[in-house]
Amino acid sequence: MDFTLPAEIEATRAEIAAFVEAEILPVEADRANYDAHGNIADAALAPLRAKARAQGLWALQVSRDWGGRGFGKMAMAVCYEEMNRSIFGPVVFNSAAPDDGNMMMLDMLATEDQKRRWLTPIVNGEVRSAFAMTEPHPGGGSDPGMIQTRARRDGDDWVVTGRKWFITGAEGAAHFTLMARTSDDAREGLTAFQFHKDAPGWRVERRIGIMGPEEHGGHCELIFDGLRVPGEDVLLGVGRGLKVTQARLGPARLTHCMRWLGLSKRCVEIAVDYAGSRMGFGQRLIERESVQMMLGKLAMDIEIGRLLVMKAAYEIDQGRYGQKEVSMAKIHVANLLHQAADTAIQLNGARGYSTDTPLEWIYRYARQARLVDGADEVHRMVLSRHLAKLGRGFWSWDVAEGAGDA
Length: 406
Description:
By secondary structure, this protein is of the alpha+beta class. Helix content is 48%, strand content 15%.
């Protein structure tokens, strides 16, 4: 791996950093710009998005042919980390979940006609989207093989019945990708469908209250009681749903980590600023050895997280899934985010616990990181399986052609 940034990527990173500093942080600092669910209100978001798009800082993850910048995962890692210096950053640049993962999925897997109808409006910022997979017990969660929602063929159409829940962004989404069972085959029993919010035969049952701040559209329970989907809106093909979930979830887990690194760095930034000025018992907090140890450990753990993310991004950029690399990054960075917020709050005292800084927001948000897109325990199980399969080969490097030849 070469960690040298190409000039275009560094220029984009610097532009994003300047935009966040000048345009987004002042909006974040004014509580009048928050909606009722702790996110940026649409009235404040719209002008920021227009400015970001005008500067070309928009949908970096989408191919150039479909309205983006065509950045690979390593380039995205650098830029996404910079975006999430602000809690509002990713959505401003059209790089927030779940749209981020849905755009990458459609860009990779959809037909040209499907891209025009389902991808382009998301890229243009005209609609939001959702990925409907998770179900209540006994349905599928981290294990898509348990999915209970059914789609039966009716002529050229499919008719869907079932229930989903904790579907991120569903209340505000217009475009949905829905995972449903079309047969009982263990490998080819799932199919991915595209549908629009105005289609009859489904409804948002409720917006589920959560502990932390919410993405736009919340986390919702959905009921399907006869949704009809035309055959042309099957994504990738009947029975290819497991492939869709693999293509959708792996990169999305990694982009979560990229963004969380930005939030972790913001926590350290706030902690260092306060500890550098706050006096107590004759010295500044930052002069205390105990505080230096706390901050030093966080700095090291953030750098470890960046290296794990870059290794996983490299694997994906090489055309591989990078499953074990993504799992390692996901575990480490999710726990790092929680620790960074907790430490920063501790050092800020009552100020950190208040809404005067975004630390309490980040702390509430951080608890979900160890659950979303696979709980820590699931990813550790994945790593154990790779270890059992690969043995000492678990720890390996790419080797240049010809290396080791006599």
